[in-house]
Amino acid sequence: MMEQAVLQGGLKTSNNLLVMLPSSKSLLVSQNSSSRLLLHQFLQLKGQQQNKKPAAATAATHVLQGSRKQISNRLHHEEQHHAAGRRMMRMSQMRTIETKSPSTSSCRRFLSTPLQAFHSTTQSATTSTTILNLGREVVEDHHQQQHLLQQLPQALPAEQLQVQDYIVLKTSLILSKKEFFELPHVPGGTPEQLFDCEDEFLGNKVSLQLISEDVDPTTGIGKLSHEMQIENWMESPSPSDTASGSSTGGGTYESRFDIEFKVKKEFGVPGAFIIRNHHRDEFFLKSVTIELKAAQGDEESNHNSTVHFICDSCIYNTKAYKSDRIFFSNKVYLPSDTPEGMVVLRELELINMQGDGTGERKEADRIYDYAFYNDLGDSDCHESMKRPVLGGSQELPYPRRLRTGRPPSTTDPENQESRVDSVFLNLYIPRDERHTQVRVKGVVSKEDAILAAGRKLLPALQSLYSTHKEFTSLNNVRDLYKAPDIIAAPVSSSSSSLSSSSTETRSSEPDEDPENQPEGMTYPVPKIIAVDEKAWTLDVEFGREWLAGINPAVIQCLQEFPMISQLDPAVYGNPVSTITVDHIEPFLDGLTVEKAIAEKKLFFVDYHDGFLPYLNKINSSPTSHAYASRTVLYLTSDGTLRPVAIELTLPPPYPGAENIARVFTPPSQGKNWVWEIAKAHVLANDTGYHQLVSHWLRTHATVEPIVIATHRQLSPLHPLHQALVPHLKGTLDINAAARKALINAGGIIEKTFTPHQYAMQISSGAYKNDWRFDEQALPADLIKRGMAIPDVNSKHGLKLIIEDYPYAMDGLELWAAITTWLHDHIEIFYADDQSVQTDTELQNWWTEIREVGHGDKKDAEGWPVLNSKPALVHTLSIIIWLASCQHAAVNFGQYDHSAFMPSHPTSTRRQIPEEGTPEYEELERDPESYYLSTISTATQASVIMTTTEALSTHGCNELFLGQRSSPLWTSDPKVLAVFTKFQEHIAEIEELIKSRNMDRTLKNRYGPIEFPYEFLYPSSVSGLTAKGVPNSTSI
User: Where do the Lipoxygenase domain residues begin and end (predicted)?
Assistant: First the structure.
């Protein structure tokens, strides 16, 4: 607090207080009487609260009311003293930089040199030139400071420049103070307002310094402007008229501050700036704009232009950083084309982002580094919560995650990182990876999706450990969407659940008035039962969902029969499937199996090898009874799929024994509950595989190392950084949330899915055996699964085996749009293949992704060699496809497909009974109850509904494919032109999808449930829409 700072500094008199006040005369004697009054009242209040004499307040007030001349004289002396120190520091230390093409080693030498710019002596900015603090190692030795001060030459102050010598750079900052984001508004003033007022009074201000693209030969970096402070910080913000993403018509609480920099005519174009925040609270810097005007008195130079900086970053107090915060303009360059004044800064900024791999990360850190998945277990809580480390071994390989540096666990310090104490405490990610919501004037703020889920999910999770409730009938399940769910009712209405209305978007955001919310939780009606409550049970719908459901990339064309396992037969028994010709030929419309395979009419879904090795462990739990499964489907004459056989297998009960397999076929007519339960086992396996592999592994875990490497190796000045980062935003945030509550020991997956504690080991097995980078490309994936064949005469060069395959049809359109855009984008910057090979940042980036981020598979097949422009286009297309389209295809339909638990159970608790057993008699007596007792409990269903509702919801600030956060994201007209073409292509795809969904001959686009396939429809409004392709893997 302010009075503590005053007392600690020994400021008992007005004379001593002068040392702590700002060195800018104009800022010391504040003309803002309301701010002075607020500060005085604040200090008096704090003095009363702590039963102390408000001596500090008295002293501060005395200074403000004292002699302005005395203050000015004292400040002038201090200002000259410290300005001299800074000039000497700049000249003596920055000469260590090589002025032409400095190498990395020279940059690192410079980084290690003490360059404090005397922040330890004066915290505020001055009107003289200030040294760029790239590596903040404070010179604390007083004698060394005095020695440097004696050698300083005198600099020419800005105000002494002649009018013909300088130009004025009008600079505008758009920012949001902390009081207007994240925290609710408090009438009458917030702590943040009071802190800012106090800091401003003490001279702890916010300052800006420009860096030219032109090099200063004495320093080796861009020419520096004078450091200027923001004036009138305490003025109330006016809502910005250009609030991006606001659909309300109102503006956001964004403040605009204007600064005029006087620089010499030879200064050049600003390519970067430094911002220093001496407030204790952070603020959100949205953008900076600099108007370049001709020199005054120079009539020939009358051309004006503008430089834009898109920041979107939280700026913390300078003490939170080891180096100054630097932002680059929206102009991008390959490393070899970097303006000379930006070369060193470009390299040093990357070094700052990489860190040194030590220490626990703090909230304000901006460091991206790698770690194994050693934070999923919690053996400190209980021995049963211990989990193996994923990554770093041949047995359990896995992509790397972001390093947090948390302390090791107490019970297993060699293998486990300690867990956070609460689900509401954030794991470290760089602050700008977490979305900052700026409030909109006149609109009650709503929680983001993760926080909303946390409010709704907490009571549901509590019920997992405290209650166990069963569904009594299918009508009992449907009642969840008609009345509040009391299974997971919150403790009190003040922290209660979300109410859902049956609007078009079925928003899952909280009611603005918590007092009007019901005691229980209500849920939107999932689309899978919205039109026909029983259509989900039909075999044709079971078949359609492999083509148009939430896991559409696992079905394969059957090319050999019988199917054969790749597992070791000595351990897992006979590898040959027990499904025979006799099982399936009665359902092939007169075709033989051989003929059906030749005509590509047989397909299969294989959850045999991925699950069988874990079944003995899984089934040792009294709450789990699962099988490994194989499902065969037949393509009928009307283009729909129909299941014709399901094989459910158990591993050998003891070494040397055979596995136990049973085959089930559909009834010739009517309903057969044994067949329905067999389908439920397949769907439970599918739900687990979808969440652990198709969703988490393919679109979250494998993308995380790419996010890390991009920030470590591609400078913000790199054209690929500018293209990639919008497609990587938010991924670290949602992945950290998943490690806290979804995939961790005792988390949602383990408590509600069949694999339980072995879930992540199954995910690791899929990464080990099935994942290749090149096969993540949609065309390669379709060919691998036999769902398409190369055909130069077909659109996109592929012929789909099933023409009515909605995921593939729409996906190929988006894949083509992405690759076309990236091809055109790369053509702007890379003249030839040689320029790709010599791009050092690009090559370092790709090497680090392969050898570090995916180090367990660095020697595997499938990694492209980035030695040509086509290879680069293909690689980037895979990354953007995964982060945007593939994630959308498997994520945003989860609620509407899975929230009705009987249609997509997450676990199975009973095996299929044999005829003649008491269990079979129970099944015959009450088949519906037996079915419900086989699948997930009502308590588990409540948790899954809550989780998938949050995961499937678009936030109000979501950016979709073809969108950017600002129209000024690039200054290059060529870049903007190719992106505009991409946007037009996306709009055409939307119209194409609409027309396809109107074509009723395409039966797989709607199906019996009358649910159109829109998971790859690019745009969407906020809420629960079951469509929309966000730019990145996030919610």
Answer: 332-1035
